[in-house]
Amino acid sequence: MELDNALQIPSEQLQQQHFDAFISVSGYESRCTYLASKIDLSTVNNKLVLAFNEMNDCLYRDYNDDKFRDLGFAFYNVSSHEISGLPEILDKICFDNPKKSLDILIDFSSMSKVWYHGIINYFTELEEILSNVNLYFSYSPSEYFKLQTTILNQSFDPVLPIEPGLKPVALIVGLGYEKDRSEELARKLKSQVTFAFYADPAIDQRFVKDVLENNQALLKRINKDQIVKYPIFDLNSINASLTRLCVNMRITHQLVLAPIGPKPFTLMCSILSARYPDIKLWKVSASGNDIPSDRKPHGEMLVYKVVFTSEEVDY
Predict the structure, then answer these.
(1) Closest by alpha carbon to 196, among 232, 220, 166?
(2) Is the pLDDT of residue 154 over 50?
(3) Which domains does the chain have, with CATH numbers?
(4) With 0-12 CB in 10 A as exposed, 13-18 as middle and 19+ as buried, what is 190?
(5) What is the pLDDT of residues 220-254, one digit of tens each?
């Protein structure tokens, strides 16, 4: 299918929309069940929850499992690190439904990036069995949480490898608030030019302070016009800033998107890479000391509607 368009919509519209499926996650964060508790589930035909195999006895995991069971969700036990079970889950939604048009709600607040990137790729590669699919990606930002441990880069996983000897490499990195992860990535990639995106204003301005302090090494060695601020609440603005930079630069450079944080920026990178397959998306995984920390819902919800259409459909 073709990724037709995408735009941010008010979260209130979720209350007025009938959904053919709702995909959520049961992990250890308390925000896992926030969206499911806020909307009218009687308008949802198929309720699915990805129950992550990792850390399945930590923090709020038991509570989340019980809550999803009470709400009537069907459980899929999966790994947060790989998506081998994704086609089966999405095939069930697409092939077991006689409709030619589907509306699917996806709560990616506690979802690993390989999963929501995999969902986007599934529909870009889907054969023409549907006329259109509307994906509603919903994100519940968390309250500010001060990191107590050191988070390191564990691996760099390029979807497409860099091709030596061709165009110079440009890195577009989304800054998180973990210390020096972005700088390590830039050194490893050896990019000719680097652009750094970070959220400001953010959910909490303490996050901005942490981002600037913990990424000093990278920010000091790139030009000011290569540092881009974006408002975390305005997903359309994030998409516009990324697209404006990348569409022309991809002609002269090999572009690498490396979103370390936050998740709304990562989603925008996944969508941009789906639109322009020559833009490489690197999934940068992290490792810490394996002590989980809770993310409590802030109370806001950001919703991004992504529309896929059959290339043969003529409107």
Answers:
(1) 220
(2) no
(3) 2-143+293-309 (3.40.50), 152-287 (3.40.50)
(4) exposed
(5) 999 999 999 999 999 999 999 999 999 999 999 99
